């Protein structure tokens, strides 16, 4: 697998040299990121690396204050921060095979990095500026071009995303077992972490672990310690990281034999049909709009709302039950950069006005990593808005009352787009788990 990493670096280097020529820069310096302190305190937030740094240095995800210098025709040069610090462990220089791809300088004084830059025209990508110098900090043109590249994943990145999915599905299985044995949201979350051997800061985003009505809160942020009286629904949106690459998976569970469980099965079938439509020619905006027809059909089929598909979509009824986007780019960031970007110079295609939360409008291409995550929810706030609309008379409110205690459904898989089809990393991961 390490050979995939080396060829990943070669591809990145070739693309970078092209971009530097275009923007007139002679070199690029990337900072790994900084630690941030809590307000009025000496304790620190968990470290989040600069994704651009991890793009090159896949194995250095927990290393603030390092710098990577990239120059045409040269080995990438890593300035590795090794402070004299008896409060924290100063890591030794890496000796693994991957480290051979870099020149190494251990440093604890920034003048070492600054003097390495010389007088060359330098772009810097970093959250914090390097003081004293005429650098081009986070130059828009270069960053747009690089953002655009990042949507297409190299073989190495695809491997990392596959492994992140293989990890996350283990957590999802543990969570499902926890739900079936009647655990609290908190205990389900803990069993998820245990199953994937992650601490909380390792997660790509805060796990969403919603029981019952909490499944209707799209980004539910609490985990109750109390065990609820009934376990009607578990909606768990939880990921994992592998060398910085994120999985972003949602599953919804409910005991069989209820209308809601049938609704989950029906949406699951539709989600797979949507995934089957993903390839390098798919227009994701159209597919998102098509998903509203799918939701309209399910609403009618389950006797929740009456009316034609077209009418339910046009009147905005489906948006009350499915208020988010169908998916997004995935990679080093859960919502990876450039989802609205149409070209290397940064032209944006905003989502349609009726669908402001759609994060992906870029035409798909082979090698993209994306999520496909339709949902169907019973969200009190949106339902009370719907009650004031003319379409309210088409709603079977007693059916809605019956389903409200179940919260909602989201089913989310991670896919790699191919020319004529796609690879479903999540379903494959579950299948391998057995
Ligand atoms: N976990 C956040 C999302 O699905 O986009
Ligand atoms: Mn997602
Ligand atoms: Mn998610």
UniProtKB/TrEMBL annotation:
Q: Which InterPro entries match?
A: Creatin/AminoP/Spt16_N, Creatinase/aminopeptidase-like, PepQ_N, Pept_M24, Peptidase_M24B_aminopep-P_CS, X-Pro_dipept-like, X_Pro_dipept
Q: Where is the Xaa-Pro dipeptidase N-terminal domain?
A: 3-148
Q: Which GO terms describe its molecular function?
A: proline dipeptidase activity
- Which residues hold Mn(2+) 2? 237, 248, 412
* Top-level lineage group: Bacteria
HAMAP family with a match to the protein in the record: X_Pro_dipeptid
Q: What does this protein do?
A: Splits dipeptides with a prolyl residue in the C-terminal position.
Q: What is this protein called?
A: Xaa-Pro dipeptidase
Origin species:
Marinobacterium alkalitolerans
The protein's gene is named pepQ
């Amino acid at each position: 697998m390490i050979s995939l990493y080396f060829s990943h670096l070669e591809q990145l280097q070739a693309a970078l040299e092209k971009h530097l020529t275009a923007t007139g820069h002679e070199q690029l310096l990337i900072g790994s990121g900084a630690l941030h302190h809590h307000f009025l305190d000496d304790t620190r937030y968990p470290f989040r690396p600069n994704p651009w740094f991890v793009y090159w240095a896949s194995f250095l995800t927990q290393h603030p204050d390092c710098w990577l210098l990239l120059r045409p025709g040269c080995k990438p040069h890593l300035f590795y921060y090794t402070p004299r610090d008896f409060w924290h462990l100063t890591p030794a220089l890496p000796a693994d095979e991957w480290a051979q791809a870099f020149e190494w300088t251990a440093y604890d004084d920034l003048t070492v990095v600054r003097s390495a830059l010389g007088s060359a025209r330098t772009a810097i990508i970093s959250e914090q500026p390097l003081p004293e110098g005429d650098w081009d900090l986070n130059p828009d043109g270069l960053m747009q071009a690089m953002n655009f590249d990042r949507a297409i994943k190299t073989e190495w990145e695809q491997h990392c995303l596959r492994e992140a999915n293989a990890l996350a599905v283990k957590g999802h299985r543990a969570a499902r077992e926890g739900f079936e044995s009647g655990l609290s949201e908190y205990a389900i979350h803990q069993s998820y972490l245990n199953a994937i051997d992650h601490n909380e800061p390792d997660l790509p985003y805060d796990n969403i672990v919603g029981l019952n009505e909490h499944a209707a809160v799209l980004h539910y942020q609490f985990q109750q310690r109390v065990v609820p009286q009934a376990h009607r629904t578990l909606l768990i949106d939880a990921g994992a990281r592998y060398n910085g690459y994120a999985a972003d998976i949602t599953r919804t569970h409910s005991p069989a034999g209820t209308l809601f469980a049938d609704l989950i099965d029906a949406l699951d079938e539709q989600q797979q049909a949507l995934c089957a439509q993903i390839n390098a020619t798919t227009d994701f905006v159209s597919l998102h709009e098509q998903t509203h027809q799918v939701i309209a059909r399910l609403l009618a089929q389950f006797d929740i709302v009456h009316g034609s598909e077209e009418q339910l979509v046009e009147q905005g009824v489906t948006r009350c039950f499915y208020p988010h986007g169908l998916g997004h780019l995935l990679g080093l960031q859960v919502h990876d950069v450039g989802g609205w970007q149409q070209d290397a110079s940064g032209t944006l295609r905003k989502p349609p006005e009726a669908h402001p939360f759609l994060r992906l409008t870029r035409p798909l291409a082979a090698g993209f990593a994306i999520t496909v995550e339709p949902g169907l929810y019973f969200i009190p706030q949106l339902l009370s808005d719907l009650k004031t609309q003319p379409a309210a008379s088409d709603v079977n409110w007693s059916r809605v009352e019956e389903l409200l205690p179940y919260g909602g459904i989201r089913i989310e898989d991670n896919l790699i787009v191919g020319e004529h089809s796609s690879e479903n990393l999540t379903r494959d991961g579950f299948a391998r788990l057995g």
